[in-house]
Protein backbone atom coordinates (compact mmCIF):
# COMPACT_ATOMS: atom_id res chain seq x y z
CA UNK A 1 0.00 0.00 0.00
CA UNK A 2 1.20 3.49 -0.81
CA UNK A 3 1.87 5.92 2.01
CA UNK A 4 0.06 9.22 2.44
CA UNK A 5 3.01 11.33 1.21
CA UNK A 6 3.23 9.14 -1.94
CA UNK A 7 -0.49 9.58 -2.63
CA UNK A 8 -0.18 13.29 -1.97
CA UNK A 9 2.61 13.54 -4.51
CA UNK A 10 0.62 11.70 -7.18
CA UNK A 11 -2.40 13.90 -6.44
CA UNK A 12 -0.29 17.03 -6.74
CA UNK A 13 1.12 15.96 -10.08
CA UNK A 14 -2.33 15.12 -11.42
CA UNK A 15 -3.68 18.46 -10.20
CA UNK A 16 -0.82 20.44 -11.72
CA UNK A 17 -1.28 18.83 -15.12
CA UNK A 18 -5.04 19.44 -14.82
CA UNK A 19 -4.47 23.14 -14.08
CA UNK A 20 -2.13 23.40 -17.02
CA UNK A 21 -4.60 21.70 -19.34
CA UNK A 22 -7.41 23.99 -18.17
CA UNK A 23 -5.25 27.08 -18.25
CA UNK A 24 -6.05 27.62 -14.56
CA UNK A 25 -3.71 29.12 -12.00
CA UNK A 26 -1.67 27.23 -9.43
CA UNK A 27 -2.31 29.13 -6.20
CA UNK A 28 -0.85 28.43 -2.75
CA UNK A 29 -4.43 28.11 -1.41
CA UNK A 30 -5.41 25.47 -3.97
CA UNK A 31 -2.26 23.51 -3.23
CA UNK A 32 -2.76 23.66 0.53
CA UNK A 33 -6.40 22.53 0.20
CA UNK A 34 -5.25 19.55 -1.86
CA UNK A 35 -2.65 18.67 0.76
CA UNK A 36 -5.33 18.84 3.46
CA UNK A 37 -7.71 16.62 1.44
CA UNK A 38 -5.03 13.95 1.42
CA UNK A 39 -4.60 14.29 5.19
CA UNK A 40 -8.30 13.90 6.00
CA UNK A 41 -9.49 10.59 7.40
CA UNK A 42 -12.10 8.71 5.37
CA UNK A 43 -15.19 10.58 4.23
CA UNK A 44 -15.47 14.25 5.01
CA UNK A 45 -17.84 17.16 4.55
CA UNK A 46 -16.90 20.58 3.16
CA UNK A 47 -17.18 22.23 6.58
CA UNK A 48 -14.75 19.72 8.12
CA UNK A 49 -12.24 20.37 5.35
CA UNK A 50 -12.75 24.11 5.75
CA UNK A 51 -12.03 23.94 9.50
CA UNK A 52 -8.89 21.88 8.87
CA UNK A 53 -7.67 24.28 6.16
CA UNK A 54 -8.12 27.30 8.40
CA UNK A 55 -5.46 26.03 10.79
CA UNK A 56 -2.76 26.54 8.13
CA UNK A 57 -4.47 29.31 6.16
CA UNK A 58 -6.60 31.40 8.54
CA UNK A 59 -7.66 33.76 5.71
CA UNK A 60 -9.19 31.03 3.56
CA UNK A 61 -12.91 31.32 2.77
CA UNK A 62 -15.54 28.59 2.62
CA UNK A 63 -16.28 29.66 -0.98
CA UNK A 64 -12.65 29.03 -1.95
CA UNK A 65 -12.78 25.55 -0.42
CA UNK A 66 -16.05 24.82 -2.28
CA UNK A 67 -14.71 26.08 -5.60
CA UNK A 68 -11.44 24.22 -5.23
CA UNK A 69 -13.29 20.98 -4.44
CA UNK A 70 -15.15 21.44 -7.74
CA UNK A 71 -11.77 21.52 -9.49
CA UNK A 72 -10.68 18.38 -7.63
CA UNK A 73 -13.89 16.67 -8.75
CA UNK A 74 -13.27 17.64 -12.34
CA UNK A 75 -9.65 16.47 -12.10
CA UNK A 76 -10.84 13.14 -10.60
CA UNK A 77 -8.92 13.66 -7.39
CA UNK A 78 -11.98 13.30 -5.18
CA UNK A 79 -15.42 11.78 -5.45
CA UNK A 80 -18.66 13.30 -4.20
CA UNK A 81 -20.97 11.03 -2.22
CA UNK A 82 -24.62 11.52 -1.34
CA UNK A 83 -26.36 9.02 0.89
CA UNK A 84 -29.79 10.61 1.02
CA UNK A 85 -29.27 12.28 4.41
CA UNK A 86 -29.06 15.82 2.95
CA UNK A 87 -25.31 15.91 3.54
CA UNK A 88 -22.63 15.79 0.91
CA UNK A 89 -19.45 13.85 1.58
CA UNK A 90 -16.20 13.66 -0.28
CA UNK A 91 -13.51 11.02 -0.41
CA UNK A 92 -10.14 10.73 -2.08
CA UNK A 93 -9.94 8.88 -5.34
CA UNK A 94 -6.19 8.32 -5.59
CA UNK A 95 -5.16 5.18 -3.77
CA UNK A 96 -8.78 4.27 -3.00
CA UNK A 97 -9.82 0.68 -3.51
CA UNK A 98 -13.20 -0.17 -5.03
CA UNK A 99 -15.67 -0.22 -2.14
CA UNK A 100 -19.25 0.45 -1.14
CA UNK A 101 -20.75 2.09 1.92
CA UNK A 102 -22.86 1.24 4.91
CA UNK A 103 -24.32 4.13 6.87
CA UNK A 104 -25.92 4.22 10.30
CA UNK A 105 -29.40 5.79 10.27
CA UNK A 106 -28.77 7.41 13.62
CA UNK A 107 -25.14 8.42 14.13
CA UNK A 108 -24.29 8.69 10.42
CA UNK A 109 -21.04 6.81 10.78
CA UNK A 110 -19.91 5.44 7.42
CA UNK A 111 -18.38 2.00 7.06
CA UNK A 112 -16.69 0.83 3.89
CA UNK A 113 -17.00 -2.71 2.63
CA UNK A 114 -16.08 -4.67 -0.45
CA UNK A 115 -18.56 -7.27 -1.73
CA UNK A 116 -17.10 -9.28 -4.62
CA UNK A 117 -20.56 -10.75 -5.30
CA UNK A 118 -21.57 -7.44 -6.91
CA UNK A 119 -19.26 -8.17 -9.84
CA UNK A 120 -21.45 -10.88 -11.44
CA UNK A 121 -24.51 -8.60 -11.07
CA UNK A 122 -22.70 -5.89 -13.03
CA UNK A 123 -21.67 -8.32 -15.74
CA UNK A 124 -25.13 -9.85 -15.99
CA UNK A 125 -27.04 -6.55 -16.03
CA UNK A 126 -24.59 -5.14 -18.55
CA UNK A 127 -25.32 -8.06 -20.85
CA UNK A 128 -29.09 -7.95 -20.33
CA UNK A 129 -29.35 -4.18 -20.82
CA UNK A 130 -26.67 -3.90 -23.48
CA UNK A 131 -24.39 -1.62 -21.46
CA UNK A 132 -20.69 -1.55 -20.83
CA UNK A 133 -20.92 -1.01 -17.06
CA UNK A 134 -18.12 1.31 -15.94
CA UNK A 135 -18.88 1.86 -12.28
CA UNK A 136 -21.48 1.30 -9.58
CA UNK A 137 -22.53 2.73 -6.25
CA UNK A 138 -24.20 0.74 -3.51
CA UNK A 139 -25.16 2.10 -0.12
CA UNK A 140 -26.65 0.04 2.67
CA UNK A 141 -28.47 1.76 5.53
CA UNK A 142 -29.02 0.36 9.00
CA UNK A 143 -28.78 0.84 12.75
CA UNK A 144 -25.33 0.33 14.20
CA UNK A 145 -24.51 -1.40 17.46
CA UNK A 146 -22.20 1.28 18.84
CA UNK A 147 -22.57 1.91 22.56
CA UNK A 148 -22.93 5.66 22.14
CA UNK A 149 -25.08 5.63 19.01
CA UNK A 150 -28.26 7.68 19.67
CA UNK A 151 -30.23 4.75 18.27
CA UNK A 152 -28.99 2.47 21.07
CA UNK A 153 -29.85 5.02 23.70
CA UNK A 154 -33.42 5.22 22.43
CA UNK A 155 -34.05 1.49 22.36
CA UNK A 156 -32.19 0.37 25.51
ZN1 LIG B 1 -24.95 4.47 14.86
ZN1 LIG C 1 -15.68 5.36 0.82
Kindly describe this structure.
The protein has 156 residues and is of the alpha+beta class. The protein folds into two domains: 1-96, Orthogonal Bundle (Arc Repressor Mutant, subunit A), CATH 1.10.10; 97-156, Dna Ligase, domain 1 (2-Layer Sandwich). 46% of the residues lie in helices and 15% in strands. It is built from six helices and five strands; from the N terminus they run ααααββββαβα. The protein has helices at residues 4-22, 28-37, 46-56, 62-74, 118-129, 150-155, and strands at residues 78-82, 88-92, 100-104, 110-113, 139-142. The strands form two sheets. Strands 4-3-5 form a three-stranded mixed beta sheet, with no helix packed on it. Strand 3 (100-104) and strand 4 (110-113) form a beta hairpin. Helix 2 (28-37) packs across helix 3 (46-56) and helix 2 crosses helix 4. The chain starts with a helix and ends with a helix. Bound molecules: zinc ion (2 copies). One zinc ion (ZN) is lined by residues 43, 91, 99, 101, 112.
Task: Give a short synopsis of this structure.
Helix content is 46%, strand content 15%.
Give a quick account of the main beta sheet: strands, pairing sense, barrel closure.
Answer: 3 strands, mixed
Strand content: 5-15%
How many angstroms does the end-to-end distance come to?
41 Å
Give, in order, the helices and strands.
HHHHEEEEHEH
Bound ligand species: zinc ion
Mean pLDDT, as a whole number?
91
CATH hierarchy: architecture of the largest domain: Orthogonal Bundle
The CATH homologous superfamily name of the largest domain equals Winged helix-like DNA-binding domain superfamily/Winged helix DNA-binding domain
Task: Find the CATH topology of the largest domain.
Answer: Arc Repressor Mutant, subunit A
The secondary-structure class comes to alpha+beta
Amino acid sequence: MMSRPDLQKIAEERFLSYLKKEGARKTPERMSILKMVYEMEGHFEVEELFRACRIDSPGISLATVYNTLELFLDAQLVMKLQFGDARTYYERLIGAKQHDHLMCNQCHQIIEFCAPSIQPVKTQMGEVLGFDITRHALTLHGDCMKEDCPNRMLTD
